[in-house]
Amino acid sequence: MTKHSKNNTASSIFTYAEYKRLDYGTKKQRLGNESMRVFDACSLCLNRAREPLVCQEGHLFCKECVYTDLLTQKTNIKRQKAKLEALKKEAEEERTRAREAARERVLQDFERGQLGLGGSSALGSGVGSKAGDIKNSGKESTTPESDEKTGSKRKQPSDSSSSFKFSSSTVSELQEKAEQAALKKLEEEQAERMKAKLPDFWLPSLTPTATAKIGQPETLEDAQAQMEVAKTVCRGGGSDSAHNLAIKNLIPVKFTLYTPSSSSTSATPSTETKKEDAEPMCPSCKKRLSNSTLLFLCKPCGHVTCKTCTDTLVRPSKQCIVCDVKLKEKDVIELKREGTGFAGGGLAETSKSGIAFQG
């Protein structure tokens, strides 16, 4: 074994593989043909579609896959609504507790202040009278001026009922101010907690490294408003082509399969193409369909034709070339495809966002 094979990382220069490992920021890579979904494959299971259905935007699915996905989405929406209702009830209970605590605190402060003022005067008068009795026992004041001065310094109320006046309006104002302050502080605390507690479809955006997106719920009311209008969506499109999807909007697809002629002498039972392995073709020009072919679907009947036959036969005559059903311009839907792996054949490059260099 040579020294270089033992110390293949001890070179003074970087190899191409080592250089690519040190890339930072957004990474891009070209996709090959093996990374592309086949045109007749399901967008969910990536296998050949069985009982294929297509949405209004041209995304292809298996019947079983799309039904299961839509049912799962509806179940998740119901569960999210139930969680939001529980959070709303919890928030209402917490708001009620905060309001009651603020009201109790205001009452306690008011009563403590009133009792402190009234009790101190009574306590001072009682202590002064007892001290005066002990110190000046048997002595009487002979100067009226001293009595007047003493009376002017400490005036005892003539009626005991006038020493304490309870103002309900003052207490109500203090309660209202304290409740508003407590509720405002509580709403701020709830908003901070709800950012990491709201159960909805934007969980990846709630991570600490994620940036705020337009439409992201910040409060419980916003989340409830979004969940009220939440509908099932199509999983075939990306974030740039997201759209709603319902079972009634699905369209059945009828591919014309290539089958060898029964009169051909070369066709034997062992070599005959099975239905599962038969390749779709255009019913007009008999061209084999592939990812390099633009495909169009006739919405009323579900037949699929290539772009050339669609532009030359279907659109001018406004009818299907297989079953002669009448078509409108909106009844011709293009089937979505991922590409061929070539630069001009569709999706040929993917990117992955990473952390930029922070030096």
Could you characterize the architecture of this molecule?
The longest helix has 73 residues, at 63-135. Helix content is 39%, strand content 8%. A hairpin with a 5-residue loop joins strand 7 (295-298) and strand 8 (304-306). The strands form 4 sheets. It has a 3-stranded antiparallel sheet with strand order 3-2-4. The protein starts with a helix and ends in a 7-residue tail after the last strand. Among the domains are: 30-55 and 254-262 and 274-352, 2-Layer Sandwich (Herpes Virus-1), CATH 3.30.40; 60-122 and 169-233, no CATH class. The protein has 359 residues and is mainly alpha-helical. Helix 3 (63-135) packs antiparallel against helix 5 and helix 3 (63-135) runs antiparallel to helix 6.
Main features:
mainly alpha; 7 helices; single chain; Herpes Virus-1; zinc; 3-stranded antiparallel beta sheet; zinc-finger; coiled coil; nucleus; flat; 359 residues; 39% helix
Major sheet strand order: 3-2-4
Strand content: 5-15%
Number of helices: 7
Secondary structure tally: strands: 10
Shape: flat
The SSE order reads HHEEEHHHHEEEEEHEE
Distance between the first and last residues' Cα: 40 Å
Integer-rounded radius of gyration:
41 Å
Low-confidence stretches: 118-151, 158-164, 208-212, 262-273
For the sheet with most strands, the description reads:
3 strands, antiparallel
* Assembly category: single chain
